[in-house]
Amino acid sequence: MCPLPSLAAAVAASRTPLRLLGRGLAAMSAARRLKSVDYEVFGRVQGVCFRMYTEDEARKIGVVGWVKNTSKGTVTGQVQGPEEKVNSMMSWLSKVGSPSSRIDRTNFSNEKTISQLDYSNFSIRY
């Protein structure tokens, strides 16, 4: 009997947790990285409860910031939070919106990493 196959199996098995741990650490650091982004949504986004649905979705996802109507018929605001959650909110603002809305396009600007949140919740501004 040769002990090498069992030794090789033991070495391979000991490497697996390290690989998984490495992925976990990368995901954890991405989750801890805070991101801020400004947005403006174009289309049929006023008079369709877009701000209310945006506030609700932001709270569900777990991001902070604000949303408001503009005088030019768009909706604008800012989202802050863990990078992955902000990315989820950006996707929602681009593709979903309120049930009666029609999103033609969403512009994102001032996308940056931040060291701390500027807001404690998500609110509708007037």
TrEMBL record:
Xref: InterPro entries: Acylphosphatase (IPR020456), Acylphosphatase-like_dom (IPR001792), Acylphosphatase-like_dom_sf (IPR036046), Acylphosphatase_CS (IPR017968)
Molecular function terms from GO: acylphosphatase activity; identical protein binding
Pfam families per record: Acylphosphatase (PF00708)
Keyword Hydrolase in annotation: yes
EC assignment: 3.6.1.7
Entry keyword set: Hydrolase
Reaction catalysed by this enzyme: an acyl phosphate + H2O = a carboxylate + phosphate + H(+)
SUPFAM superfamilies: Acylphosphatase/BLUF domain-like
Transmembrane portions of the chain: none
Superkingdom of source: Eukaryota
Name of protein: Acylphosphatase
Gene coding for it: ACYP2
